[in-house]
């Protein structure tokens, strides 16, 4: 029996306020005149993964907790306008928010409001079970509700992926996600020894592969049984780099697209690199993702016609 959805995305909904700054780090001053301005828009990690997957033609369903507030309305509109199926659960503390400072070179600094989510937050088990039964794969954000949903996803027999973002390799909070996922993404930003962390995830968990993303340096892929990580170079964007926000989410979407199509891990990493490069050309105030035709065309150009 075929599944209704290719990917069930859990968690990661929120609203960002984008502030363009003249440089990062931002020197102290009494005030700055900001151009092109300050704008609030829907879209955090789960929203952008869902967008990336849907743009690549994968049947995607997103479930998360959001508030009954204007920020929640932005998230509802984000999914409705892009025809992404969305199951919302009330978050008593209100919709999650962040402020992103974006420099002229596209680098960003995110300030997350940590007051809106609590350890007691839960996604309804019956709802998660029903959606899991209708899906091929699950991608989970590292939030409290998703940690409690992991056993339900395993029970349903789904493969699971997660993004640990800027994990330092030591914080125990991330371990349930790191060791409970079949595919793990992590940034090298805070890792003192990326390869050691990648190996530990493979040794202690269920992952088949760990991907460490390193921005302009590309990414590193370590699969179970491999002698060493494989370096996958970054792809040069086809336009000016204006913002790195969402590049990691785009990378994960491209990688998952390849994996669900049965591609090798290295080909999946190339898909991820192409999708991530495209995301860097999208202004922080916008929400756009590469589509399947453009992705495959660029991969074909990079590999001499072998898409």
From TrEMBL:
Domain annotation Carbohydrate kinase PfkB: ranges: 188-288
Residues in coiled coil: none
Protein name in UniProt: Carbohydrate kinase PfkB domain-containing protein
Gene3D superfamilies (UniProt xref): 3.40.1190.20
Keywords recorded for this protein, A-Z: Kinase, Transferase
Gene Ontology molecular-function annotations: kinase activity
Domain of life of the native organism: Bacteria
């Amino acid at each position: 029996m075929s599944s209704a959805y290719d990917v069930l995305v859990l968690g990661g909904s929120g609203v960002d306020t984008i502030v363009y700054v003249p440089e990062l780090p931002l020197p102290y001053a009494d005030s700055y005149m900001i151009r092109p301005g300050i704008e609030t828009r829907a879209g955090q990690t789960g929203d952008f993964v869902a967008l990336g997957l849907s743009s690549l033609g994968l049947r995607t369903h997103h479930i998360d907790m959001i508030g009954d507030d204007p920020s929640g309305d932005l998230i509802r509109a984000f999914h409705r306008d892009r025809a992404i199926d969305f199951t919302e659960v009330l978050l008593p503390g209100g919709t999650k928010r962040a402020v992103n400072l974006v420099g002229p070179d596209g680098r960003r600094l995110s300030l997350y409001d940590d007051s809106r989510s609590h350890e007691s937050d839960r996604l309804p088990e019956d709802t998660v079970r029903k959606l899991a039964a209708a899906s091929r794969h699950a991608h989970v954000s590292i939030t409290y509700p998703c940690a409690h949903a992991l056993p339900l996803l395993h029970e349903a027999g789904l493969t699971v992926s997660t993004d640990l973002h800027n994990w330092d390799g030591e914080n125990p909070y991330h371990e349930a996600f790191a060791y409970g996922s079949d595919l793990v993404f992590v940034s090298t930003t805070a890792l003192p020894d990326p390869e050691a962390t990648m190996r530990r995830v493979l040794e202690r968990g269920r992952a088949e592969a760990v991907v460490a993303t390193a921005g302009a340096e590309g990414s590193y892929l370590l699969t179970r049984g491999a002698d060493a990580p494989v370096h996958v170079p970054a792809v040069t964007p086809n336009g000016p780099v204006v913002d790195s926000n969402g590049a990691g989410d785009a990378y994960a979407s491209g990688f998952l697209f390849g994996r669900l199509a049965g591609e090798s891990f290295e080909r999946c990493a190339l898909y991820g690199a192409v999708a991530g490069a495209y995301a860097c050309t999208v202004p922080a105030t916008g929400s756009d993702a590469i589509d399947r035709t453009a992705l495959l065309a660029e991969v074909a150009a990079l590999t001499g016609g072998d898409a």
